[in-house]
Amino acid sequence: MPYLSFDVGSSSVKAAVISEDGGLLGFGRSPVPLTHGPDGAHEADPSAWVEAAFRSGRAAVAAARGDSSKGGPEVRAIAVSGNGPTLLAADADGKPIRPALSWMDRRARTEAEEVSRIAGFPIDAGFYLPKALMLYRNLAEVRERVRWFFSCPEYLAFALCGEAVTYLPSPGYEPYIWDDRSIGAVGIPKELFPPFVAPAERIGALSRDSADRLGLAAGVPLVSAFPDFLAAIVGSASVEPGCACDRSGTSEALNICAERPFPGKEILSLPHAISGLWNLSGGVSAAGAALDWLDGILGSGLDARSTNASSSSEMPAASRVSELAQSSSPGSGGLVFLPYLAGERAPLWDPDRRGAFVGMSLEHGRAEIARAACESLAFGLRLAADIARSGGFSLSLVRASGFAARDDFLCALKAEVLGVPVEAPAIADCELVGDAAACALALGDSCGLAESSRALFRARRRFDPESPGAYDEHYGSFKSALAALAPFDADRPKGKTS
Hints:
2 domains, globular, 6-stranded mixed β-sheet, Nucleotidyltransferase, domain 5, alpha+beta, 7-stranded mixed β-sheet
């Protein structure tokens, strides 16, 4: 009997019905908007998440049942993951008071400095409590009406079952989400923050209305899951030291499983979903977003060198850029792209970083521009990997997740740049598999999270490096460009759109 998984992404809500042995029985996807405004505003409509979840969930359930006269297998449990740190304020009826602040929204810089002083270590402006503090202090409507501050996946879970909770992957995450001491120090009432629950706990039951809209029976248990990055780590079975999940989407990060935290601040070190292990991460905040942006700049039709130009309009934007990139040679004819279109988190930790093409000439066309963009994502991951390696941490295998996991060119490119094998999973959206692993553990189908993770993961294809060191010189040019433009980013006038 299968599990139903939801994942709320920046651009879509995905749903999947997954069997107990990791097979994909049904899938659905529904787009959601993300708006960008002045001063670095990035906001989403939480109501759109809910409606998209019903559409994608019903599609996944219908696909799993197919034409079976018996109606197909019944879902035994439901879990929700989602992007973070995205935060919203809801009223006593559970309705959003205003748009949610996306994980990309880093306007709460002043509040982050205050929370960092309280915590005793840096808390980024994109994290939960600085955002809650900014809304509570600056918006009277929020202050007067708020009943709950929700993260993204917990809000969808609340909409499905009516129970308000906050996911706590492990106690080590409290300062990065919110804790009693910090809440009290900033003056927000503690009761506005839902109680913590550990992964794989039953938090409620599917309501009658939600069940009707999904085509399910009421009362199916809702199980606590993870923020999306941890769901992808679990779903890719990156649960052994040296194994990493390359989680790609609007953003992209390399998440390396390790036995200890990284000693410096360049790499973000957080407890792993598996007790006793650590997740070391760094990457590119605007990865898929950069390819989508570039596709809009270049136009949706591929140039004459593309072999599939006639079908280009039906392809996702990132796939169109990837296909165009394959018309150019490694190194993009000396063209370098810096993909930092929305500032950067780990390993640069610089909100003022911006993107750039470096070394452009009359010889460069759209194919070279596209390839430089694709290579930049791999270089951004290697930047994080090399810093981790310099600290004595190993990287032996990368498992892809997200849009790039469906793209053989991008998987092969990363294997060459990183110098380690890259595996593409059978179910590309590993967050959905991670949610299923939480369901399996909650229902007693496995004895531990690592066990259910390994049992559900299936690899589609493995990409081994064919020419070790082939990209070293190009990667060196990327780092040189990054260093050369750092003073410009620091001195650039900060206008309303920065």
